[in-house]
Amino acid sequence: MCRRVSKSGRCGRSTFLICVMVVSSMNKFVEFVLMMQIENYNKPFLGALSEYDDGKDLSDYDFGQDGLGLPSDDDNKRKLAYMHRVIAQKYEKGLHNLFDQETMKLWNELYDITDKYTDGWLSSARAFLEQCSSGKTDTTSTASADGMVDSTDSTYQHVNVLVTSGSLIPSLVKCLLFRLDNLITHENVYSSWEEGKIQCFQWIKERFSSSNVRFCVIGDGWEECEAAKTMRWPFVKIDLRPGSSHRFPGLTLRTVGYYFSVVYDSPGAENDKD
């Protein structure tokens, strides 16, 4: 539901008009990504069926007539892998290549209205991810649990990974709509719908396994909290209450650094410091 509340307490009529026009313009894209009820064939990540993709040229491929269905045999897995490949390509091109100029303008207006209505949640969360994803050399290292900061030269790079309890394809669409596609690549979007978050976290650890890699989980649910505890990773719980330092706006890399320090700099931390 699209909503804007004016000072008089009434919803802005123009907001609903923008929403209807944007949704109308998205029909072709939505029809593609949800074609043949693809949500019934959810996979934990887009590359899950890559071994079945034979690299066929899909320029003239008709997904509406390829007969994707049950059983889940190699033939249907290949068809689904084709669709995943094209969805990944569309994701990489970004929303501006899916919307025309007018629709993009309308969506930007709706985004700004939504951001204002949520007290800047969207823009501040995006800014936080931008800070996280910037690889750089900094003189500020990890903040300790007592608030002291060690000043040492260190080069680091953060990788943003999304693990959602929703199905995969709609979650990728949400990343596009909320301007997160250049901060979270499609390879780094996981659906825990069937597999659960512990399994997703284990896959992520295997992907990025290295002697100098550390992980941190940020979320507001019990499942990711328990999964982080099982993996012995720091967990930053989002607090939705206004004024909290653990919400958006509010959460900072300095705060996250405290959690890193408590877990990884403690005597019981993992030896490999993943």
Describe this structure in words.
With 274 residues, the chain is mainly alpha-helical. The chain folds into two domains: 13-113, no CATH class; 120-264, Rossmann fold (3-Layer(aba) Sandwich), CATH 3.40.50. Helix content is 41%, strand content 10%. The chain is built from nine helices and six strands. The protein has helices at residues 13-25, 27-33, 74-93, 101-117, 121-133, 168-177, 197-207, 222-231, 253-264, and strands at 136-143, 149-156, 162-164, 189-191, 217-219, 235-237. The strands form three sheets. It has a two-stranded antiparallel sheet. Strands 3-4 form a two-stranded parallel ribbon. A two-stranded parallel ribbon has the order 5-6. α8 (222-231) links the parallel β5 (217-219) and β6. α1 (13-25) crosses α4 (101-117) and α7 packs across α8 (222-231). It is globular and about 55 Å long. The two termini are 41 Å apart. The model is unreliable at 1-11 and 137-153 (pLDDT under 50).
